[in-house]
Design brief:
Layout lengths: L37 H6 L8 H20 L15 H23 L4 H30 L5 E3 L26 H4 L4 H25 L8 H8 L1 H7 L1 H8 L3 H9 L3 H22 L16 H29 L3 E3 L13 H38 L1
Helix pairs in contact: 2-3, 2-12, 3-4, 4-6, 4-8, 4-12, 4-13, 6-8, 6-13, 10-12, 11-12
């Protein structure tokens, strides 16, 4: 075995033999005591513990996601992978990659100490928030009601299509009048959508980190409901596209019929199922101790969240294909100004600034956890 421990494998423990903060509801055995070395933690990935499935369900998902993500760059006639058109797509990749890696490593390394356990899950919550902003950037530039639309003499995408497609020519969608196609709500998209997504992401990070110190009895319900808010904010362009047909939605629908609604409904379905698993603690609630190693709710939660991400990726790729296969549409001069194209500042700048703010929140909570552990240690010594 490549990861050979310096000492024999420590025995797995029951819930009565580990600190209460380590235990999970209805999981009675398979616990690692929080004093493992890094090497022992890595070796435990190949040992049946109650965290093994939690690790592999998101670690293997990294490679599945990367395969489907990189598939787009094999399309004929695509621009360079470094083209500004792909900046939002790469930021989406960063968000998903960090989420899956942080989640899998948090479950693998959390038995090193109680303090490291707290830090691992603080980072986990932070990457979930960063993922929601990565999704928002992709939605803004690819699913926005005016994504791919240009005004007279302006271009907002860098993708120029020179491929001749077989079959009958596509009938261009009918242009709607500017008032009906672009109601006042367009101001929210262009001025407040991305800032709102960032603010909500920071609020969610604060709330979820706080559940590790307060509200522990209802922590799963709170964490699940807290992330409902960024979903609603991030999905605003999709709701708008589905409820208010526009030139952009007609363009996308003519090339990829039903793809937006289909993939989004599947995305929502898997999110709903994952939330039910996370809150209900099914199936281990029905038979405590039977699903300690394999098949407990958190593993199903991981599987369902990844399936939701995969459908979201297919949805975004379908919109990118629609933008690629149709020339940019031209609107009358009375229409609102064109949607600005992606830049380093508006994509990577937003993502890394957010990561810095999330890092500050994680550092603050980690310092508080460290101080609490020191206070408890001193209290025990005094008694």
């Amino acid at each position: 075995m490549l990861l050979r421990c310096s000492r024999p494998s420590q025995p797995l423990l029951r819930h009565t033999d580990v600190p209460q903060r380590v235990t999970e509801s209805f999981i009675l055995s398979g616990y690692r005591f929080p004093n493992y070395s890094l090497r022992e933690c890595l070796a435990s990935a190949f040992r049946p513990t109650n965290e093994t499935g939690n690790f592999w369900t998101h670690f293997l998902a990294v490679f599945v996601f990367a395969f489907h993500f990189l598939e787009l760059f094999g399309w004929e006639g695509r621009p360079s992978y470094g083209d500004p058109f792909f900046y939002p797509f790469w930021n989406y990749f960063i968000g998903v990659f960090l989420l899956l890696m942080a989640s899998s490593l948090a479950h693998l390394l959390n038995s090193m100490s109680l303090l490291i356990r707290e830090i691992c899950f603080f980072v986990d919550y932070g990457t979930i928030s960063a993922y929601t902003v990565g999704s928002s950037l992709a939605y803004f530039y690819y699913i926005h009601p005016r994504a791919g639309i240009t005004a007279l003499g302006h271009h907002n995408v860098t993708w120029e299509v020179k491929t001749v497609h077989e079959g009958p020519p596509l009938r261009p969608p009918s242009l709607l009048s500017p008032p009906s196609a672009f109601p006042e709500f367009h101001m929210f998209f262009e001025s407040f959508y991305i800032p709102s997504a960032c603010v909500v992401a920071l609020i969610c990070t604060l709330a979820c980190c706080n559940t590790r110190q307060r509200w522990r009895r209802h922590r799963y319900v709170i964490r699940t409901l807290v992330f409902l808010l960024p979903f609603i904010v991030a999905s605003t362009p999709i709701f708008y596209r589905l409820l208010r047909p526009s030139v952009a939605s007609a363009q996308s629908s003519s090339l990829c019929p039903g793809s937006l609604g289909l993939f989004f409904s599947r995305h929502c379905f898997w999110l709903l199922v994952s939330a039910l698993f996370n809150i209900s603690k099914f199936p281990e609630r029905l038979s405590p101790g039977k699903f300690d190693i394999w098949g407990h709710s958190h593993q199903w939660f991981h599987c369902c969240t990844f399936l939701s991400i995969l459908d979201e990726l297919h949805m975004i790729k379908a919109e990118i294909r629609a933008l690629a296969l149709h020339p940019a549409l031209t609107l009358p001069a009375l229409a609102p100004p064109p949607l600005p194209g992606p830049t380093l500042y508006s994509t990577y700048g937003v993502m890394f600034t957010l990561q810095g703010c999330i890092g500050a929140i994680i550092s603050w909570f980690s310092w508080g956890a460290c101080r609490n552990q020191g206070t408890k240690a001193e209290h025990l010594k005094s008694h």
